[in-house]
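User: Hey, my collaborator sent me this sequence without any context and asked if I could get a structure. I don't really work with proteins. Can you help?
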Amino acid sequence: MNPSLSEPEGILVVDKPQGITSHDVVDKIRHLYQTRRVGHAGTLDPMATGLLIMLVGKATKASQYLMSQEKEYLGEATLGVTTDSQDADGEITETQPVPPLSETQIAETLKSMLGDQYQTPPMYSAKKIGGKKLYELARKGIEVEREPRFIRINLLELQSWVSPKFTFKVQCTKGTYIRTLAFDLGKKLGSGAHLSMLRRTHSGNLSIERGKTLEQLGAMNAQQLRECLIPVNEVVPSIALG
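Assistant: No problem. I've predicted the 3D structure and written it out in structure-token form, which is a compact way to encode the shape of the chain:
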């Protein structure tokens, strides 16, 4: 078969912009590559930007393996303001004064969150309980008990501190809610907080440096789009594909 006529196949690293869902990106990639067989390996909230792994064609088989990889993010937390969604897209639920904190105090607080732990998923999340997505219940004002999930934070470093905001780098296992991490840090620092910025920079051995924006992809022809696809065997061991 002529390669130009075969179904496209491979891994595509997209630099997701702010304000759209991961499914919006899936729809865009389906249109660009002219195939319905497109998925992603780990969602990003609409507020978040950065690395979104798209799987085209038979590469969708690698979804579970790629989703299980450690993630790295750059985040910003704003102290003194908490929201119902734990991020900047939510409604403000409480404001508090921000104490005079030093960089050392914040860095030590971040350090205290390292290691194995259990984290309770936020109500504004896509996790399902009883067949209903939590955010659907939250929008109706319903709060249900959520079972804490096991996570591990391998790195959590302060990058900058200019009151009331601090930026941080975090490396963590899959399923970690960075919104909830920011919320928990706010409680420890005595003023509450919400996640005001999030950018995913790595997932496993894939980096945002290999990413293409939707604008860049939209300007490419069919051949250039195929050249952007990373062969699955370059990223995923054959044993993981079954």
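In plain terms: The chain has two domains: 10-68+205-241, 71-202. You can pass these tokens on to your collaborator as they are.
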